[in-house]
Write a structure and sequence with these properties.
The protein is an all-beta fold and about 400 residues long. It has strands at about 10-20, 25-35, 45-60, 65-75, 75-90, 95-105, 115-125, 130-140, 155-165, 175-185, 190-205, 210-220, 225-230, 230-240, 245-255, 265-275, 280-295, 300-315, 320-330, 335-345, 350-365, 370-385.
Amino acid sequence: SIVYTRTIADPIVGAKLAGKVGEKDFLASLYAMDELETEPGADSPDYAHIPIFRYKRSLSNDGYLGGIYSGREVEDHYNRVGGVDGQLRLSGATTLSFHGILSQTREDADSDAEGGRALGFHFLRNTRDLEIGLVGKDVSEDFRTETGFVWRTGILQVSGRLRPKFYPDSEVFRRVDLEFFSGQTKDRPSDMWETYNRVLVNAFVGSRVSLTSAYTHSTEIFRDEKFDTGGFTLRASGQLTTEFYASVAHIRSDAIYYSADPYQGRKTRTTASVRYQPSEKLQSDFNLTYVDFHRDSDGEKIYDYPIYWGRLSYQPNRYLSFRGIVEYNEFKKELLTDFLASFTYIPGTVVHLGYGSLRDRVRWEEDAYVDADEFLETGRKLFFKMSYLWRR
């Protein structure tokens, strides 16, 4: 993602302008002056200037050609990113997407600028009976985008997916999909290859239930070491009744303990969610996530991480809505509560008012926080936003 607006953390001023020019051209621009955190007494810049520009020209069907520029300027430091992208509709079922992005970064006035690249394509053919996908990526080690998010650099990757679809003459199974995926990635810093290979079966039972099972054989390079990361996945989800939706997933796999001294382990991840909607105005959601990690060498449990999350939404009419969220993180022993009231006259013309608090199971004793059996409110926030949409 070349542009990820949450990288603008504390804007003092900002402006955004977007719209169509003629029938086929779309322009968008954004500028923000972001206040930077500085240490007391430190001689460092106060602001970052962030300009972003986007252009797209529509082609036939859903095809387009586009260009983008994003920058982050902090006195003598800068990060500038620009390039082109597009999507071509080759046939009714076939598309080809591509991008070519260059970056240039200078740390300070005494250093030289370093350039990087991110190139890629995605070929997809999707018909009623068969889906074929091919992806290629090339991201250099020096590629940087300070206004966006790139999860990994220094890779060369090629992957392919084959997904045949079957429609059995059965009263139980409406459709069965098989998937064969293989991806090979060269990690340039270590000059080693990692692999990701998956066989998946997805069955649609009736019109409401989906059952999935998968086996993965994969490896990952971390700190110039190769680790196993493959395993098994089981998942089921469906609209059980008009009011109830439920899903559950269980993953058992090899895993990495990410640290300065990493080691091989085994990870279990289980998630379950339920949605109850007795009417169009009221909806409740509950989600449970549990993750644990065991070290391979001696079988010791290193951690377990349960998270409980719930949300209640109520919309009495087309304009007004209320939402409350509660989350308890058992590992951190934190309780998060959020409340939001919204008035939406039309999309774009809205008023939001929210309040949130964070409570920890700690108490203040002498000069430090210590563990406790009761919750202490350690943070609160008030949120207000109003926007007006004007069209001409």
